[in-house]
Design goal:
Structural class: mainly alpha
Strand content: under 5%
Number of strands: 0
Shape: globular
């Protein structure tokens, strides 16, 4: 099979580009199969993560062991982020997507054949690796099919689709008994079904080069808060995705409330990210990061005293999820403010890796926190992570002058390590840089016009005085 079999849609894209760029509607029509397919993939991901959290407790696995199982996904995703781009560059988008979707579908079913923590951890690692490749393929295709005028909007639509799929996935927990095999089959079907629209409709494979990476020491020197914030965001987001269902089970919630709790924590991301991003564009981004992470700590502390499963507790979960996941986008934007544009591609790739590593460690730590302290350990974990990041961010504010608000690149809106690869991060950075350059060009043009008008006014005054 060759990627060239889908050339007709590529030609359509080229024709659109030649005619002066595509409208957002045209771009969505070109990429609808990709968006629909990734929505199915993320729907399956959301269900699988919640299902494993619930099923692990039903099987008698301690919360700490469940944390190890769930962390396997993020470890696999981090490794996949390193190897998947090179695999795509060598083998091609179509083959990689088909192969990895098949592997992910098989890995889900193997959970039902071997109910063992070691096997389940291995399957989660394999699933994470496969999903990293799927995300790389999807995002590079999306980036290729979008024109400069629509790339930022298409990226936002893609992220909303992914987060909506992740948020809706846990609700499928209610369609069958999590103690049986039906829900695992549902996850497998969703992942396999994603292949159909993508392989039959998505157009010509884009040219692809594996993104370069920046050394950790260099990245920390250039953007210490951006790098540290990304690790903390991964630790928080990984715990939410991997351990939220474990907490809900330990807190004695019913199956329906478990699914709703996990769902609202993820859907809160869609609501909170945009206003947080807008604030970070107007004010010192480091102070916004400090305020957001400390507010997340306060929300987690309030959740400690709320009755699990009540409406206030669910609102707190949505707020915690939205604030925690916003840190991912803020960390990317903060790094973008500090790293020279020519090094941004390498920095973005390294940030995704740091998020994956943070998610792995965070899921482990949150699982053992629940095991040691009971349900309260879940929210106490978030208090510790966000207070630590808030203190570090406050210290960084005192160590270095802020980038002026007018010189900050616009914020980028991204998901997290389970749904975002270096391709989307780099694309978002490029969109932000283009928007920043346009702002600078407009400001320079306005300044030049003012100078010209002032000079014209002086000439008029001189003419009047001489006459």
């Amino acid at each position: 099979m060759s990627d060239s079999v889908s050339a007709p849609l590529s030609s359509s894209t080229d024709a659109t580009a030649a005619s002066g760029g595509a409208s957002l509607f045209q771009a969505v029509m070109l990429c609808w199969a990709l968006l629909f397919g990734m929505g199915l993939v993320m729907l399956g991901t959301g269900l699988q993560s919640t299902l494993l959290g619930v099923r692990s407790i039903l099987e008698g696995f301690p919360p700490g062991i469940t944390g190890i199982i769930q962390s396997g996904y993020f470890a696999g995703f981090a490794v996949g982020s390193l190897f998947a781009p090179g695999l795509v560059a060598r083998v091609g988008h179509v083959r990689v997507f088909a192969a990895l979707a098949s592997v992910a579908s098989i890995a889900v079913l193997l959970h039902t054949l071997y109910v063992d923590p070691i096997v389940w951890t291995a399957m989660r690692i394999l699933t994470g690796f496969s999903f990293a490749g799927l995300v790389v393929v999807a995002e590079s295709w999306l980036n290729y099919q979008s024109q400069n005028e629509t790339r930022g909007q298409m990226l936002s639509i893609y992220m909303v689709v992914c987060m909506a799929g992740m948020g809706a996935g846990p609700l499928l927990l209610n369609i069958a008994d999590p103690g049986g095999f039906v829900l695992f089959v549902v996850v497998s079907v969703l992942v396999s079904a994603a292949l159909v629209p993508i392989l039959l409709t998505v157009g010509g494979a884009p040219p692809f080069e594996a993104p370069e990476k920046m050394r950790l020491r260099e990245l920390y020197k250039l953007a210490p808060l951006g790098m540290t914030g990304m690790v903390a965001a991964g630790m928080s987001n990984g715990a939410l995705v991997g351990v939220a269902a474990v907490y809900a089970q330990e807190a004695g919630l019913s199956r329906s409330l478990v699914s709703i709790f996990v769902s609202v924590a993820l859907i809160g991301v869609v609501i909170v990210q945009w206003p947080v991003g807008r604030l970070s564009d107007r004010y010192d981004r480091r102070k916004v990061m400090t305020a957001v992470t400390l507010l997340a700590a306060c929300v987690a502390a309030v959740a400690l005293v709320l009755e699990p499963g009540t409406v206030p507790a669910l609102i707190a979960a949505a707020g915690l999820g939205g604030l925690s996941f916003s840190m991912y986008s803020l960390a990317v934007a903060q790094t973008n403010d500090r790293v020279p544009f020519k090094k941004m591609v390498g920095a973005s790739s390294t940030l995704v890796l740091m998020s994956g590593l943070g998610s792995t460690v965070g899921t482990l730590a949150a699982g053992f926190s629940v095991e040691a302290l009971g349900p309260d350990g879940f929210f106490l974990y978030f208090v510790v992570v966000h207070v630590a990041l808030g203190l570090y961010a406050s210290w960084r504010v005192a160590q270095r002058d802020a980038v002026p608000a007018e010189d900050q690149a616009p914020a980028v809106y991204l998901g997290g390590s389970y749904a975002t690869s270096a391709v989307a991060t780099v694309a978002a950075v490029e969109v932000a840089e283009e928007a920043f350059e346009e702002q600078q060009a407009e400001a320079a043009a306005a300044e030049a016009q003012e100078a010209e008008e002032a000079e014209h006014g002086q000439d008029t005054e001189r003419d009047a005085s001489s006459s």
